[in-house]
Design brief:
heterodimer; A: 701 residues; Rossmann fold; Helix Hairpins; B: alpha+beta; SH3 type barrels; 6-stranded antiparallel β-sheet; 2 helices; binds guanosine-5'-triphosphate; binds magnesium ion
């Protein structure tokens, strides 16, 4: 192949695609196979089919955002498959697109498999038009054969193969049909094949040849020349900068002149590709002719009012269903809790007060709170998984777009905020679906203010105790302030810290499908697993440390380290009208929101009366125990003024993200600066909100 | 004869052809790669005030924000 004479690929070592592992498939005889294609075409499904892995699959464009490698055997050889993020083109507009492109460019896989959606052939062939410019063995997969046939489209893989010169297989990754043909095609690719390419010469005119000439003269390496010429004419920032860098001053100037002469290259380039696609699909059964088919449900689901009502109903029913589903999963947590509070304690404490207390109060409570949360997460993500697999989740992004716009975000941000309601850890991780890095950071900073399930319980409980039927207006005021907080934080960030232009929603709404249960269960499994590693241990450790701080050195709260610490820092709490007890609870809520109520029980219980049963910790069932007991009355008689209570509620609501969330913020941004920034910001906001609420409370009550 | 307008002000049910696109390179690149290229036919499915415009474009539904829709110049077919 001519183009390959200069292009050798090879990783420069600083590309975004190789964190850690640089040498994928370097062993002789092994094959490295890259899966590329537009979002939602089924790459991860194929990857899972080949390797038995559990990559996230769902009906929503843009799930895979990092590359993932897997292994399978292929006619006695070892195949390394790499699942790449879906991209509409190989222009690096976002981080995911950069990952996919860098992998093809720098790792020169042995075979590139381009996945195309046979039921939307014309649109999804767009990527192919670009990849044929690379001198690598290619295979086109016409996936979702079943869906295409249901739509009445006949797929003629042979014809497409003849016209493109690229090995083409029709398959259905869902049913496994065509898997063997894919393997065969991968093995029989030919590195000297000549592909039919888009006629860039005709579309761009003489300037294309000139650029090509210039690149060849200067022996540009690292890129296939034709593709590089296309990207230069399309004003791809990264390629332009990179190539200008290696050219000498004269050549750089010449290139500049050429590129200036070519106006609106992006459009010309796209046009060239679609012309190529048209030529391939013309006069054949390959493609269906544009029938408009909006699902009847969408007329309602995408209606501003009707759709919003439907979405709220679905979300509420979903939470109820999640509770019902998770109940059996939470039972182990409850049993542990009861054991810790009753039998075990009675048996262990007499034997050894220290060990017994440590085991029951320090360990079991935390583990049971973690287990209950684990069950809840399983239930919620089961429902979210169904919403995603059916295609409904994408509609939520559309519905909430105008509201998100108010906060300078677009519709896709609603997904992480929604997940944040379950547990902020997932909210922060969920920001990955947002394609613009600027909006992603903004969403990441505001997500922690979304009250998670644990915090909602705490707030609900405390407002009810202190304010009785005034609880509802107070709760609503929290929501209003939260919205204002999000809007202002976002405004501040975009104006002063992350200047840039606003990008709005441009998103495919994929067709509905019956939920694919395997995908749903896989989704639940991966979420539960990631909570196990990231959330569960934070909760149990927080419980343990809190217990230790209460227990030592004296064995009771009055003479504990925690109390001593509380008295020392009380002046700070006074700013918000909080005495040392409330202030300590606020600080504990930083370690784990789940632990908050438990600590309150311990601190106030001990302060008010010895007979109070302090065996309850904040988890759901314990709430009922608390409500049934006299805890509320004790709190109310503990000498806390309504203004202090209000300040406390606001401070807890807007308090620091918990340690687990903070750890994830670092994990997602990989930046100490951002993590510390979020931390400082929320410390300041906690004090600000608390003091404002305190002053407001003093005026009102 | 046709009137020139932008996608943002088209009524639901209307059919049209993309005539031209405005805006900077990063918008253009996003828009064309999802299928908004000059000459492409589409049908407006929904267009409610404040909400993104939903169009049927190249065999699928695409939702596009209002600011983005304003940058797409269209020919409305009759
Ligand atoms: N009907 C049908 N659906 C399929 C087939 N293959 C995949 N799907 C569905 O298509 C959707 C997208 O599949 P994924 O494997 O997640 O797609 P992807 O290309 O990895 O998507 P991104 O990671 O977002 O780029 C899922 O809902 C799959 O269940 C198929 O052969 N037939
Ligand atoms: Mg994927």
């Amino acid at each position: 192949m001519k183009a390959s004479s200069q292009y050798t690929g090879g990783c420069p070592g600083n590309c975004s695609c190789c964190e850690g592992k640089t040498n994928i498939g370097s062993i002789k005889g092994d094959l490295t196979i890259a899966l590329v294609g537009q979002p939602n075409t089924g790459k991860s499904t194929i990857f899972n089919m080949l390797t038995g892995a559990s990559q996230h699959v769902g009906n929503w464009p843009g799930k895979t955002i990092e590359k993932k490698e897997g292994i399978f055997t292929l006619d006695g050889k070892i195949g390394h498959v790499v699942d790449l993020p879906g991209t509409y083109s190989l222009t690096a507009n976002s981080q995911e697109e950069t990952i996919a492109r860098d992998f093809i460019l720098h790792h020169t896989p042995d075979v590139v498999v381009i996945v195309v959606d046979a039921s939307q052939l014309e649109r999804t062939l767009y990527m192919v038009a670009e990849v044929v410019l690379f001198p690598v063995p290619l295979v086109i997969v016409l996936n979702k054969k079943d869906a295409a046939e249901k739509k009445g489209i006949t797929i003629d893989a042979k014809k497409l193969e003849e016209r493109t010169g690229v090995k083409t297989v029709a398959m259905s990754a869902l049913t496994g049909e065509g898997k063997d043909e894919l393997m065969e095609a991968i093995l029989s690719t030919d590195s000297d094949a000549e592909y039919c390419k888009p006629d860039l010469n005709k579309s761009f005119g003489p300037v294309y040849k000139e650029v090509l000439e210039l690149l060849r003269e200067n022996k540009i390496s690292g890129y296939p020349v034709e593709w590089a010429a296309l990207k230069l004419l399309e004003e791809d920032k990264a390629v332009v900068a990179d190539i200008k860098n290696v050219l000498d001053a004269k050549a750089r100037h010449r290139l500049g002149v050429m590129l200036k002469a070519c106006k609106r290259g992006t459009i010309t380039g796209a046009d060239a590709r679609f012309t190529w696609i048209k030529r391939l699909t013309e006069n054949s059964q390959i493609s269906e002719k544009g029938r408009v088919k909006q699902h009847r449900f969408d007329r309602l689901a995408l209606h501003p009012l009707g759709g919003t009502v439907i979405s709220l109903v679905i979300l509420v029913l979903g939470i109820i269903a999640a509770y019902i589903i998770m109940l059996p999963l939470m039972i182990p947590g409850y049993i542990l809790f009861l054991l810790a509070a009753g039998t075990l304690r009675d048996v262990l404490i007499p034997v050894s007060p220290l060990l017994g207390s440590m085991f029951c109060d320090g360990i079991l409570y935390g583990v049971s709170a973690g287990l209950v949360m684990l069950g809840f997460i399983g239930g919620v993500f089961f429902i979210l998984g169904i919403m995603e697999s059916s295609g409904y989740l994408a509609r939520l992004a559309y519905l909430f777009d105008p509201y998100m716009n108010r906060a300078g975000l677009h519709g896709k941000s609603v997904i992480p905020l929604l997940m944040g309601l379950v547990c902020n850890i997932f909210g922060v991780m969920g920001t990955r679906v947002i394609d613009s890095s600027r909006q992603r950071l903004v969403t990441l900073v505001v997500t922690p203010v979304i009250p998670c399930k644990a915090l909602l319980l705490v707030i609900g409980f405390i407002t009810a105790i202190f304010f009785g039927h005034l609880a509802v207006p107070i709760f609503l005021s929290l929501i209003v302030v939260m919205i204002a907080y999000i809007i202002m934080t976002s405004f501040f960030l975009r104006k002063y810290i992350l200047p840039g232009e606003q990008t709005g929603l441009i998103m495919e709404l994929p067709p509905y499908q019956k939920p694919i249960w395997k995908d749903v269960f896989m989704y639940v499994y991966t979420k539960v697993k990631s909570f196990w590693y990231r959330g569960f241990w934070f909760i149990t450790i927080a419980f343990f440390l809190t217990w230790a701080a209460v227990y030592f050195p004296g064995g009771s709260i009055e003479n504990s380290y925690l109390a001593a610490f509380g008295h020392t820092i009380e002046p700070l709490g006074r700013i918000m009208g909080l005495d040392w007890r409330l202030f300590i609870v606020l600080i504990i809520s930083f370690f784990s929101k789940e632990a908050t109520l438990g600590v309150m029980a311990v601190i106030f219980g001990a302060a008010v009366s010895d007979t109070v049963n302090v065996n309850f910790i904040s988890i759901d069932m314990a709430i009922w125990a608390v409500v049934n007991g006299d805890f509320g009355a004790y709190l109310a008689s503990a000498g806390i003024t309504p203004a202090s209570a209000l300040a406390f509620i606001y401070a807890v609501f807007f308090s620091l993200p918990c340690t687990g969330t903070l750890a994830i913020i670092y994990g997602e941004t990989r930046s100490y600066k951002w993590t510390a920034g979020v931390l400082c910001y929320s410390v300041v906001m906690t004090f600000l909100m608390g003091s404002l609420a305190y002053q407001a409370g003093r005026l009102i009550f | 004869m046709y009137r020139m307008k932008t996608l943002e002000i088209m009524r639901p049910g209307a059919k049209g052809t993309v005539k031209d696109l405005d805006g900077n390179q990063s918008f253009l690149s996003r828009a064309v790669s999802i299928g908004f290229t000059p000459g492409v036919e589409f049908t407006v499915l929904q267009n409610y005030r404040h909400w993104p415009v939903v169009v049927w474009l190249r065999d699928t539904q695409v939702a596009i924000g209002r600011d983005e829709a304003r940058k797409i110049v269209v020919d409305e077919s009759k």
